[in-house]
Amino acid sequence: MSNPYQPVQAKILDVIEETPNIRTFVLKPEREIPFLAGQFVELTIPGFGEAPFTPSSSHFRRETLEMTIMRVGRATGALFTKKPGDLLGIRGPYGKPYPLKEFEGRDIYIVGGGVGLAPLRALFLALTEEKKKYGRIFLRYGARTPKDIVYKKQLKEWEKIKGVDIDLSVDAADEPWERKVGVVTCLMDEIPCDVKKSVAVVCGPPIMMKFVTKKLLEAGFPGGSIYLSMEMNMSCGLGQCGHCRLGPYFTCKDGPVLTWEQIKDIEEPFL
Amino acid sequence: MDAYFLPNHRCSSWLASLAGRFNLFYPREVDEAVHWQRYDANDFNIEQLALRKIRAAEPIKPFFFSPRERVASFPEPVEPETKMKPTLLFGVKGCDLRGIAVHKRMFLEGEFADPFFAQRLNNTILLGADCPAPERTCFCNLLGLKPFLTEDVDLSLTVIDDGWLIEALSERGAELMQMENGLQKATDSQIAKREEQRQKAMRILKEQNPKDWNPNLAQAIADKTADKRFWIDAARDCVECFGCLLTCPTCFCFLLYDQGNAERFERSRVWDFCYLPMYARVGGGANPRARFIDRFINRFHCKFMHSKNQNGFYACSGCGRCFSTCMGRIDIRNILGQL
Ligand SMILES: Cc1cc2nc3c(=O)[nH]c(=O)nc-3n(C[C@H](O)[C@H](O)[C@H](O)COP(=O)(O)OP(=O)(O)OC[C@H]3O[C@@H](n4cnc5c(N)ncnc54)[C@H](O)[C@@H]3O)c2cc1C
Ligand code: SF4
Ligand code: SF4
Ligand code: SF4
Ligand code: FES
Predict the structure, then answer these.
(1) Cα distance between residue B68 and residue B256, in whole Å
(2) CA-derived radius of gyration, chain A
(3) What is the per-residue DSSP string for A212-255?
(4) Is a pLDDT exceeding 90 seen at residue B179?
(5) Which string of b and e fits B87-123 if b means at least 16 CB within 10 Å?
(6) ipTM of this model?
């Protein structure tokens, strides 16, 4: 029986400054972490502890692993002092991946907010790698200001892909900005896919997910086709410690992505 | 398997010989309370072996799931200790087993089994003892458990006047019985005596817990969840000391906690408690159960709704430790009885 609490070493190859408080860490783990888009890992910042993060890179390339991380507190604060060459620990992958088989043949409507685009990038890269399997891919992304947009360069590249449709918004444009201004739901007044046959995938802060879900339901998406990334407190990641309980689910093993259908009746304040 | 009889004058020596092979713990009466104690030949007298009493003040949980345990380290990894002398818990009660059942589900049956828990459980012999005299705090009967053991332990023991009736319930138990040559096959009248004692204990439990609960507590709690008034009343006398969670044999929550520096660190697993305000807090400070009342309800969801729906049994043993220890004297039976 192997020890699931023991992390493997991972070397930081590169640190990419995405926004003033979001960085992408490119890691080379000692042994390959066989993740699939939507799964997460527990990242150890030696001496500080662990926190859960979703790889943002393509699951078709697993020798290195990218994670896009926002600095919010203790562990992420310590992580932001790390440089290329420093060592971290990783254990995982944990949780259920996006059910890509079920996505096949359908349009995919992705809505991201802030650093929530990180897990969605892994999904986007997995989808575009095998584009023929899926319908059109729509990506709607909102950030606070133009400075807070992650993956600026990649977004430009992705817009050029055939069958991909991207729209962006910022809550406030404090510098020249040619696109929409407003919270991300302002990009959703018209949903250009057949909602009954498409899937919607949402990741962002809880308040954003709440309003996006409302819009999606109003537009006619069935609750079972709306996939939400639930951020609950996680410690073990293994379905043992109890922290991530959300109603009958352990978010770490039944999620972190759950459908609206699964969670809509849970009494707890979760969104 | 058949029951055997060990006469009183041989009991001490059997215990001593078991203590030679195992790390033996037994329930000992100390100032009117029962506590688990490590066997020490120089400080043992069979009178102190509190087999006829109810469960010890503390649950057996820490024997398998330590309040604090090193589970990983860096750069040298940690593996479970395998050279430990096996442990024997002499005098486990029916309610003690519910804790093990819950922990087995949590720690062993998922995709990632916990090798530390597995190692300790494998390394432990359980000898169960009947409760001939349930006390006011006992309500195992309402949770589908019995005040005596007929399965899930290695050996089952009943104290009768002139000795012990012992029955092996596993192969490990049978082996231990073969080591003792003072055992005689139990007579019909001895077995009848055991049965009589057991029925009497069941009667006591029934008499002191006369009210039958809602047959589907899980559904009753689900239906009651939105009635915040009910829960606020139920929690009124709670002073948030967390004693109920600390003493509960079925609670399993833990936190992984790292200490050290970039070159060398250790990871401990420490018990955690869902009543703590920080328990569910996420990065950046949002907290889905910031109010105590939501955390209070969560405990009932966990024990009586989710566990029942997912495992088929309640994560409660009826041991009564939570209200024996409660500063607010909140008796969980009253809350469950109102559902
Ligand atoms: C499945 C999943 C995937 C995620 N993916 C990403 C991602 O790709 N990118 C990203 O930026 N973020 C992601 N997050 C969020 C990220 O995990 C959090 O932002 C991170 O945990 C914050 O850690 P921190 O220590 O810096 O924050 P803090 O706010 O300091 O603490 C966060 C956690 O530490 C614990 N904690 C803090 N203080 C205390 C205390 N006093 N006592 C006890 N416990 C305490 C709590 O468990 C709390 O949830 C993800 C979260 C989940 C659940
Ligand atoms: S609750 Fe039942 S099994 Fe536990 S000590 Fe009381 S009578 Fe014995
Ligand atoms: S909830 Fe109370 S009665 Fe039930 S197992 Fe825990 S301590 Fe015992
Ligand atoms: S033991 Fe009683 S007072 Fe203490 S937290 Fe539990 S219910 Fe509240
Ligand atoms: S993080 Fe421990 S149970 Fe989910």
Answers:
(1) 10
(2) 18
(3) HHHHHHHHT--GGGEEEE-----SSSSS-S-TTEETTEEHHHH-
(4) no
(5) bbbbbbbbbbbbbbbbbbbbbbebebbbbbbbbbbeb
(6) 0.92
Contact A209, A270 (CB under 8 A): no
pLDDT beyond 70 at A269: no
Phi-psi label, residue A92: left if phi above 0, alpha if psi -120 to 50, beta otherwise: left
Chain A residues touching residue B254 (CB < 8 angstroms): 235-236, 240-242
- Which pTM does this prediction carry? 0.94
Residues, chain B: 339
Average pLDDT over residues B31-44: 94
Type of residue found at A125: L
Could you tell me if the CB of A243 is within 6 A of ligand 5?
yes
C-beta of residue A37 within 8 angstroms of C-beta of residue A121: no
Q: Which of residues 171-210 of A touch B (CB under 8 A)?
A: 206
Nearest CA owner, ligand 3 atom 4: B316
φ, ψ dihedrals at B97, nearest 5°: -75, -25
Provide the token pair at B132: 């001939």
The two tokens of residue B258 are 């790292």
Which of B106, B132, B107 shows the shortest CA–CA distance to B117?
B107
Tokens of B170: 């596993």
CA distance B205 to B145: 11
Identity (one letter) of the amino acid at A3? Answer: N
Length of chain A: 271
In this complex, the residue of A2, A49, A268 whose CB is nearest that of residue B289 is: A268
> What is the per-residue pLDDT for B251?
97
Tokens of B291: 């109010």
